[in-house]
Structures are given as C-alpha cells and as structure tokens.
Amino acid sequence: MRIARFSIDGNVAFGAVEGDGTVDSGDLVLDIIKGIPYADFELSGVKVPLSKVRLLPPVLPSKVVGIGRNYAEHAAELGNEVPDLPLAFFKPSTSVIGPGDSIAYPSFSSELHHEAELAVVIGRMCREVPADRVKDVIFGYTAANDVTARDVQQREKQWARAKGFDTSCPLGPWVETDLDPADLTIQCTVNGEQRQLGRTSDMIRSVGDLISHLSEAMTLLPGDVILTGTPAGVGPLNVGDEVAVTIEGIGTLTNKVIKRG
C-alpha cells in the first residue's frame, strides 16, 4: 500500500494512494485514512483526486539518520575507503521537505551535490532490534535525496552543516509499505539527464543490518527515517536545476533548486 501525507483546504491528512499512474498523471486518488497510519487504521471511504491536493513529506520524523559510504563505488569516487562499521550521521527534522518543494542552495556552499537514496520509515518504537526482527519495526520505504554541501563536508570534520541545512532532505512522494528492499533500482536525473543508476543489492550493509546496528544505540520512533546510502554518480546541483530520484516499486521524487532567499 502507498501511504501519502497531504494538505487540502488547510487540513493535513494521510491517505492511501489508489490507481496505477504517477504523481503527475492525474489518474491517482487518495482514500483518506482515519487517524495516523502507524498502528492499525481504517480507510474512511472519502476519496479525493491527488491532483487536487498538495503532497507533503510523507512523514514528520523526530530524526533522520543517514548512513555514509554504504556503496563501495560511491566511496571510491570520492576517494574514501569503506568504513569497518556503518558511518552514521544525523539530519534534523528541519531539513525535511516533500515532493515538489524547493531545495534552497545554502549561502555558505559553492558545491551542492545530489545523493539518491532508499529511505526506510520506522513504524513502531523500538530499541536493540535483532536482525531477524527488523521487518516487524518497518512501516515502509520512500525515496530520498541526501543533498550535501560537498565543499563544506570536505572542509569540516563534522557533517552537521554539510548535510543538515534546511531543505537538504527531500522525501517522497509517499511511503510504500509492501516492498522488498533487497534489489531495487535507484536512479537520479538532473534536468532529465541520468546521473546515478544503481541497485540496492550493491549496498555493503543491508537494511536489516543497519537498523539493528543503529537501534543498539538509540530508540527509534514511529516516523523516523533511515537513509541507506547512495550509489555512485553523485554530482553538482545548480540554481534552476530539477532533480528527480526514482526508486523501483516506489516512484519519483522531484524537486527544484532555488537561490536561498
């Protein structure tokens, strides 16, 4: 099931996406969910065309935990070695934007990069999750763009500013709850030109391994997001560019880069 978060007439709700089209096709409708979707929920039967609503970030996470260098070719293209353990970092909730929202080019950087990623959405509060129980705590999956100020990342030892600035974490267009993440195509285009093309089967550490590892240290809450790393092909973004992340079985997340006001 595809679960979207949206606004209509000043109200915010979740809905189940019905139909076989894309975000822009005009063929999709939303069946509004009663309450929030993390626990058992009911569909209201009240349906609205997706074309009549504004899609929002599919979740509002208390935290976004990113994983660096989880694809060997990406680590190599930046001259880095694969770490012995998962390399984790945080992106604050204020970095999250949704499909169609603008990425504001930060004033303190002159080298902004796209990073297409599979994002895992947590569905229940959990801690110290064994690898064989990880499926029980996952709500679903969405597309993400771990937008990075590369020059700042290389200059500063901590990645907080480079990866945590406002609008640096586009998520969407919705959460797919029924998906096997083991071998999915990940693609990124900029102005229609392909930049990244990889498969989740190339991840060094699996979704299960990552969540088990992270939950040893911290409690994960419903709606929290885990970014699983990016394949090779990262590259520059400029003001005016349109960047799209497409993940097999989920859909396409599109955002435009603007000058920060």
Short description:
One of its GO terms (molecular function) is acetylpyruvate hydrolase activity. The chain is built from four helices and 20 strands.
Task: Describe this structure as you would to a colleague.
With 261 residues, this protein is mostly beta strands. The chain folds into two domains: 2-55, SH3 type barrels; 64-259, Fumarylacetoacetate hydrolase, domain 2. 10% of the residues lie in helices and 42% in strands. It is built from four helices and 20 strands. It has helices at 72-77, 150-155, 160-164, 207-215, and strands at 2-8, 11-18, 29-34, 42-49, 54-55, 64-68, 87-91, 96-97, 102-105, 112-114, 116-122, 138-145, 148-149, 169-176, 185-190, 193-199, 225-227, 235-237, 242-247, 251-259. The strands form three sheets. Strands 1, 2, 3, 4, 5, 6, 7, 8, 11, 12, 14 and 17 form a twelve-stranded mixed beta sheet that branches. Strands 9-20-19-15-16 form a five-stranded mixed beta sheet, with no helix packed on it. A three-stranded antiparallel beta sheet has the order 13-10-18. A hairpin with a 2-residue loop joins strand 15 (185-190) and strand 16 (193-199). The longest helix has 9 residues, at 207-215. It starts with a strand and ends with a strand. The mean pLDDT is 96. Keywords: Metal-binding. Residues 63-257 form the Fumarylacetoacetase-like C-terminal domain. This is 2-keto-4-pentenoate hydratase/2-oxohepta-3-ene-1,7-dioic acid hydratase in catechol pathway. Residues 1-58 form the Rv2993c-like N-terminal domain. InterPro entries: Fumarylacetoacetase-like_C, Fumarylacetoacetase_C_sf, Rv2993c-like_N.
